[in-house]
Amino acid sequence: MDNANFDNDNKLTTETVVKPDQEFKKRPVQKQNEKESNHQENNNEQEGEGEGEGEDESEYEYEYEYVPSTALYIIGIGALIFTVGFLIFINLNYPMSKHLKQMFIGSLIDFKNQFFMKKVYIAAVGIFIVFQIFTTITQILIKYIQPDASNSTNKDLNDFAGSSVIGAFIIAGIIFPVGEELIFRKLLFGILNHFSTLLAFIVSSFVFAFYHFEFSIQKLKEEYIRFPIYLFAGLMFAYVYNDTGCILATMLGHILNNSYTVILSLLGVLQQ
């Protein structure tokens, strides 16, 4: 009887493991219960009484862990290789290497100086306020159009917040925003802006929006309804970066928004 129940619990564990195309999802992991030894000792006595009854779920505890996808490992390894390669290249004795090194050092100095600019913090707070107002209005419209829609604009943040408070703030609240701003604003917008500012706004914002789009058949309609939120965020970050010239402003604004979502998730305000 115990072996059958144990097999069912293991089946629950394996069936809920994330798919390769997912980033961070929960999976229940069976933990050794302190009462398990007593349960085994009294097994013979309980067999006759509880033969037709299901197993008491309180006999087992479950914890949640996040399993990074293969794609996440590839991106992480690729970023590490690129960073190491870049640092090696700029220290070589080539004219282009010296030029890139000067640009890199200049960017670091400029970034450091941004911490002492008042407009950076004003812009960051402005991003947070405007985005929350827009999101609230959009969520009301979404509930009207699709009442059964979840209350989160970024389900991954809500899922990840349930695993670890420290991990949620470090990964979802800081690392993701900083990385996204470097890629979509500093790199993509910055390159396209040399050719056309309008093109930079359109391309960087749409790429940012589709990056957050969840391509799932079950949630396709819901994601299309939420697409304006993702697009608005991309346009707003691009506008602030273009207007202030400070990537730190969009980083801090992005961090505020993500951290706020994580906090609400930890408090159980958002639907999981």
UniProtKB/TrEMBL annotation:
Write down the superkingdom of origin: Eukaryota
| Entry keyword Transmembrane helix | yes
Signal peptide limits? none
- State where composition is biased (Acidic residues): 44-60
Q: Name one GO molecular function term.
A: endopeptidase activity
* Transmembrane portions of the chain: 71-94, 120-140, 160-179, 191-212, 224-241, 248-270
Annotated stretches, region: Disordered: 1-60
Q: Provide this UniProt record's keywords sorted from A to Z.
A: Membrane, Transmembrane, Transmembrane helix
Residue stretches making up the CAAX prenyl protease 2/Lysostaphin resistance protein A-like domain: 165-259
Residue ranges under compositional bias (Basic and acidic residues)?
Answer: 8-39
BP GO annotations: CAAX-box protein maturation
Entry protein name? CAAX prenyl protease 2/Lysostaphin resistance protein A-like domain-containing protein
Question: What is the organism field in this record?
Answer: Neocallimastix californiae
What are the leading ranks of the lineage?
Eukaryota, Fungi, Fungi incertae sedis, Chytridiomycota, Chytridiomycota incertae sedis
